[in-house]
Amino acid sequence: MDVFGETRCWMYSIEWQKRGLPHSHNLIWLKEKIHSTQIDDVISAEFPNPEMDPVLADIVKKSMIHGPCGNFHMNSPCMKDGRCSKKYTRQLIKETQTGMMATQSIGEETPKMVDAQQK
């Protein structure tokens, strides 16, 4: 089943970062256009609850979150000409934004703790 509708074609690349897990960059062409709210229905990001799973919460904090950089750590590898080359820190947005030839942003609400046993 195609989550966003019928796929016309796709491609991906797997990257291994120095400090973390592998991740993929995906490019998917759909037969029909989708609305950004459809993306929000399928993709989300949540922090694990440190009281329920302190080991996982610590792994996420150390391996999956960018920073600190900027005034907190000017020698961070991401810093170029006094600014973060990854454009952090960023404002949280409530909904995914899409546009022609633009960097896509996945909407996030204020980070919340999750009880993995409730899922």
Q: Secondary-structure blueprint of this entry?
A:
Blueprint (H helix, E strand, L loop, with lengths): L6 E10 L5 E9 L5 H7 L4 E2 L5 H10 L15 E2 L2 E2 L28 E2 L5
Parallel strand pairs: 3-6
Antiparallel strand pairs: 1-2, 4-5
Brief overview, please?
The chain is an alpha+beta fold and 119 residues long. 14% of the residues lie in helices and 23% in strands.
Please tell me about this protein's structure.
This is Helitron helicase-like domain-containing protein. InterPro entries: Helitron_helicase-like (IPR025476). It comes from Araneus ventricosus (Orbweaver spider). The chain has 119 residues and is of the alpha+beta class. The chain has two domains: 44 residues, no CATH class; 46 residues, no CATH class. The protein has two helices and six strands; from the N terminus they run E-E-H-E-H-E-E-E. The strands form three sheets. Strands 1-2 form a two-stranded antiparallel ribbon. Strands 3-6 form a two-stranded parallel ribbon. It is extended and about 45 Å long. The two termini are 22 Å apart. The C terminus is likely disordered.
